[in-house]
């Protein structure tokens, strides 16, 4: 289909119909319905399957053809006959064509230098269900879908404020994908909002099929392994972020909503942290941080200690490790890499396979193959324990993108530990920390509030204080309205 050009609607409807038929040539799902309203010729253009035929037939076409006695001039048709609530008048043919491709119905009338876009979108859509990747013990069970209008409604249910803004934007030169930017006008950080709009306006690609396209094109550093934009399937997470002064980006055909800016402490938080009592969730947050440390350094620490620093191991533990490694033909480094690669393959297989088969593969890979590897003397039992603890610790992290980054860091530290032992681990951690300190998300430090300490912001970082202490919004976000509880 050739690209259309911007042109005005002519008084002769036949010219416009001929132009659109040529434009939509070889498209069997484009419907052209021509009819008469008294002596005026009219036409509908819509896509079969994307427009609601019942609405068109019963509330538009039938009144126009049967109940047109009150019409004295062509300009009265819109106000006296059309029984639809959402209708827009346009003067450019290109706007009508774009509306047709979005699922609307475009109406032309002979003798009228304008066309009507009638809201008739009605395509198959998945119902609102529970997010599979962000489960909670306590909290709402509704999640975003692939339909952008459903998603905006889920957010509006939680923010009943006239200052909530929803700004539309079409992305993709060919796909014309619907997207919106959502924010609360008197809270949002205007600097972040303006920068986000500038980056989105620079996107010039033929198609945007998912919010992941947008995320990768507007992030600060494309070469960082850490996610600088938060993505979520939960409307309550988006609402909470908007109340803090952040901005949400919704893209049609994607159930993942983007939140900017993102900081590492934000990515390590779960909705459960706020829905349950603060004492228990503060302990859970501490366990979460400890699990991250374990998942990153445990395999590298094993390699460093068994290869370079055996003297720091207690004697009985050293004997236990040595006896368990008796008969293993590989050094600790190779043994660790074998298990790490096997774990990565197993996780990818579980994700890609259908759920019933994936669960079976997890059991087969984790138990049978692991036990067989130990019995065959390829790996030691203590290595299986270390990799098992590492895997469990890794997936306590609520954000999958952060989990993937930690996995890469773990491989990096294992290689560093082979070279110079514990010193390699320390140097590797320093390199990662320097990178994190330098990293920013839309002008906000990635480690905030750690890098610009404000005692008020620490009440919701490594621990979660009671709600009565949450009188102000996070200072590092620089919100316009700083007070959220009086």
Description of the molecule:
By secondary structure, the chain is an alpha+beta fold. It folds into 3 domains: 13-118, no CATH class; 148-262, no CATH class; 274-441, no CATH class. It contains 17 helices and 12 strands. The chain has helices spanning 13-23, 53-66, 77-80, 93-101, 148-156, 190-201, 211-218, 235-243, 264-267, 272-275, 278-307, 315-324, 332-352, 355-375, 381-394, 400-420, 422-438; strands at 30-37, 40-47, 87-90, 105-109, 115-118, 164-171, 177-184, 230-232, 247-251, 257-260, 440-441, 444-445. Strands 1-2-4-5-3 form a 5-stranded antiparallel beta sheet, sandwiched between helices. A 5-stranded antiparallel beta sheet has the order 6-7-9-10-8, sandwiched between helices. A hairpin with a 2-residue loop joins β1 (30-37) and β2. α11 (278-307) runs parallel beside α16, α13 runs antiparallel to α14 and α13 runs antiparallel to α16. It is elongated. The model has no long low-confidence stretch (mean pLDDT 88).
């Amino acid at each position: 289909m050739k690209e259309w050009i911007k042109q005005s609607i002519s008084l002769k409807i036949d010219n416009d119909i001929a132009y659109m038929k040529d434009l939509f040539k070889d498209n069997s799902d484009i419907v052209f319905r021509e009819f008469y309203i008294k002596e005026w010729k009219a036409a509908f253009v819509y896509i079969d399957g994307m427009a609601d035929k019942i609405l068109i037939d019963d509330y538009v076409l039938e009144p126009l053809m049967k109940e047109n006695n009150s019409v004295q001039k062509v300009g009265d048709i819109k106000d006296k006959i059309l029984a639809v609530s959402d209708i827009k008048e346009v003067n450019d043919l290109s706007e009508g064509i774009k509306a047709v491709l979005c699922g609307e119905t475009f109406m032309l009338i002979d003798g009228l230098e304008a066309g009507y876009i009638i809201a008739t979108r009605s395509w198959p859509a998945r119902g609102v269900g529970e997010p599979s990747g962000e489960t909670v013990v306590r909290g709402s069970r509704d999640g975003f879908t692939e339909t952008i209008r459903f998603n905006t409604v889920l957010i509006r249910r939680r923010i009943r404020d006239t200052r909530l803004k929803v700004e539309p934007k079409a992305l993709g030169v060919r796909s014309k994908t619907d997207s919106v930017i959502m924010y609360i006008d008197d809270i949002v950080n205007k600097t972040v909002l303006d920068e986000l709009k500038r980056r989105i306006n620079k996107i010039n690609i033929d198609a945007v099929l998912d919010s992941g396209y947008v995320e990768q094109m507007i992030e600060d550093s494309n070469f960082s392994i850490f996610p600088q934009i938060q993505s979520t399937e939960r409307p309550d997470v988006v609402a909470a972020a908007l109340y803090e002064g952040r901005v949400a980006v919704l893209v049609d055909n994607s159930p993942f909503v983007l939140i900017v800016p993102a900081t590492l402490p934000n990515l390590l938080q779960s909705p459960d942290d706020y829905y349950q009592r603060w004492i228990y969730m503060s302990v859970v947050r501490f366990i979460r941080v400890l699990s991250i440390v374990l998942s990153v350094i445990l395999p590298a620490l094993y390699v460093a200690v068994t290869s370079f620093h055996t003297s720091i191991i207690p004697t009985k533990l050293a004997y236990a490790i040595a006896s368990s490694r008796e008969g293993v033909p590989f050094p600790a480094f190779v043994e660790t890499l074998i298990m790490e690669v096997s774990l990565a393959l197993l996780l990818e297989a579980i994700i890609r396979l259908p759920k019933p088969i994936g669960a079976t593969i997890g059991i087969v890979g984790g138990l049978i193959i692991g036990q067989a590897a130990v019995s065959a003397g390829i790996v030691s039992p203590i290595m299986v324990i270390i990799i098992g603890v590492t895997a469990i610790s890794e997936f306590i992290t609520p954000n999958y993108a952060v989990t993937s980054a930690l996995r890469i860091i773990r491989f990096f530290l294992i290689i560093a530990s082979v070279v110079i032992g514990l010193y390699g681990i320390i140097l590797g951690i320093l390199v990662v920390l320097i990178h994190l300190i330098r990293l920013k998300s839309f002008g906000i430090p990635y480690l905030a509030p750690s890098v610009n300490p404000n005692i008020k912001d620490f009440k919701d970082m490594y621990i979660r204080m009671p709600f009565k202490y949450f009188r102000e919004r996070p200072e590092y976000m620089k919100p316009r309205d700083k007070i959220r509880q009086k």
